[in-house]
Amino acid sequence: MYESLNTQNSVFAVGAFVTLGSVLMKRGKLIEGESFLRRGLDVSEKQAQKNYARIIPNWIALTENLVAQKRIAEAQILSQRAVDNAQAHLGEGNSITKNAVENLAKINKIATTKR
User: Fold this and answer.
1) What ranges in 1-94 are assigned the alpha helix state H?
2) 3-class DSSP state of 97
């Protein structure tokens, strides 16, 4: 069903891909979940006018997936990207920005305890 999804209707496609990715992740199917999360991000990042209020939570979801797969270095890079873009496009006081900062701190803490 999702394979034939028309990505021209990008809002629907992004929502469908991210929702499916999140569900798969919660069911322990991390690799499949990552694939759908990345597909959703790919569609949203190709939009002419980027909606960072939607993209950044999707980046955060993908970082959570990467952490669950123990791919901490990748998660750190993507999480830093989320923070940088949230601060630049949404502002410091935005709740999404605060969530991105908290997510990065959590990942950095995991990275330091793994050493």
Assistant:
1) 10-26, 30-45, 52-68, 72-89
2) helix
- Reading the block at residue 51, the tokens are 């909606």
Q: Which helix (H) or strand (E) holds 114?
A: helix 95-114
Structure tokens at 96: 């999404």
Tell me how far the alpha carbon of residue 67 is from its chain's centroid: 12
Dump pLDDT digits (tens) for 44-87. Answer: 888 768 889 989 999 999 999 999 999 999 999 999 999 999 99
List Cβ neighbours of 7 (8 Å cut-off, separation of 6 or more).
13, 43
Q: How far apart, in whole angstroms, are the C-alpha atoms of residue 72 and residue 75?
A: 5
Q: How many whole angstroms separate alpha carbon 74 and alpha carbon 90?
A: 23
46: which 2 tokens? Answer: 């190709």
